[in-house]
Amino acid sequence: MQLVKVMLLTAACLVGAAQAEIAVVVNPANANAVSADDLNRLFLGRSSSFADGSKATPLNLAEGQAARAEFDSKVLNRSAAQLKAYWSKLVFTGKGTPPKELADDAAVKAALAADSSAIGYISSGSVDSSVKVVATF
User: Fold this and answer.
1) What would you report as the CA-atom Rg of the chain, rounded to the nearest whole angstrom?
2) 70 pLDDT more than 60
3) Number of domain units in the chain
4) Phi-psi bin for 56: left (phi > 0), alpha (psi -120 to 50), beta?
5) How much is the pLDDT for 20?
6) Which of 111, 20, 101, 2 is nearest to 60 (CA)?
7) CATH number assigned to the domain comprising residue 75
8) How far apart are CA 97 and CA 110, in angstroms?
9) 70 assigned to some structural domain
């Protein structure tokens, strides 16, 4: 019985380790704080500015990236299919355009370096001094 408990606990730990932590990042010059609500509004096209009124440019990772799936699930509380349907409707009706998609963490960091209004997310393991972490999930 103890062996079964140990095996179940080990399996639970491995599943948890498979889910990478996501870091929401901005340009180091950006002084804005963001909440989960702010992120939801920004990445669903319901807002285009930070709390202080300055422009915000959300950046998504490309579909298929593990961090993208984690962000969609943990922050936006939607699956990739739900988000695709959501954006298809907004684009079709002319009421919005989805955030720009970038290939990988390095592309997000490069875009943040070039645009102080940009906000994106990367795997926590990719965080370095070129970005400022404003939230983790």
Assistant:
1) 17
2) yes
3) 1
4) beta
5) 76
6) 101
7) 3.40.190.10
8) 22
9) yes
Residue 3's identity, in one-letter code, is: L
In a domain, residue 3? The reply is no
Residue 87: give the domain boundaries: 20-136
Question: 127 CB contacts (<8 Å, ≥6 apart)?
Answer: 23, 25, 133
Residue 126 identity (one-letter amino acid): S
Can you tell me the distance from the alpha carbon of 71 to that of 120, in angstroms, rounded to the nearest whole number? Answer: 10
pTM (predicted TM-score): 0.85
Residues 6+ apart with CB under 8 A from 12: none
In a domain, 12, yes or no: no
Q: Is the pLDDT of residue 5 over 80?
A: no
- First and final CA of the chain: distance in angstroms? 35
Q: How many CB atoms lie within 10 A of CB 16?
A: 8
In a domain, 59, yes or no: yes
Handedness of CA 102, 103, 109, 114 (dihedral sign): negative
> How far apart (Å, rounded) are the C-alpha atoms in residues 105 and 121?
8
- Does the pLDDT of residue 22 top 50, yes or no? yes
